Amino acid sequence: SSGINAEYGHLKLTTVFPHFTDTGMFRGASVKMPQLFPMLSPSWVAEQIVCAIQEERDEVILPRVTAPVIAMRWVMECRVFRRFCTLLGNDLMKTFQQTRQHEQLK
Predict the structure, then answer these.
(1) What is the DSSP string of 26-66?
(2) CA–CA dist 50, 52 (Å, integer)
(3) Which helix (H) or strand (E) holds 18?
(4) I want to staple 62 with a disulfide (CB 3.0 to 4.6 A). Which of 5, 15, 18, 33 is the partner?
(5) For residue 62, what pLDDT is reported?
(6) Rounded mean pLDDT of 14-38?
(7) Largest Cα–Cα distance in the chain?
C-alpha cells in the first residue's frame, strides 16, 4: 500500500490480512489451535477494518497475534512458508466444503 500511496498521493489504501473468518466460505473448516488462531467473527473483522481505514493505517493484521506469521512470509520461500503455516495448524483447506458451484464448473 505504501507504494501506491507514493505514486498516487491522493489515494489512501489499507491492506487487510484477516485470519480465517467465520463465513460460508470456510464452512466446515477447523483450526488446530483455536486459542491462538481463532475463527474470526465477520462483524468484528468489519469493525476492525473500518477502524483501520478511519485511522488511515497502511495495513491491519487480524488478529494481531498473527503478525509474526505474516512477517515470516517476507523472509521465507513460498513453499517453506506454506509448510510453516501447516505446522501451525493453518491447513483449513483440507476440511473445506464448497458451498456453491463456480460458473466455470457448471
Answers:
(1) GTT---S-TTTSPPBPHHHHHHHHHHHHHTT-SEEEESGGG
(2) 5
(3) strand 15-18
(4) 18
(5) 93
(6) 81
(7) 43
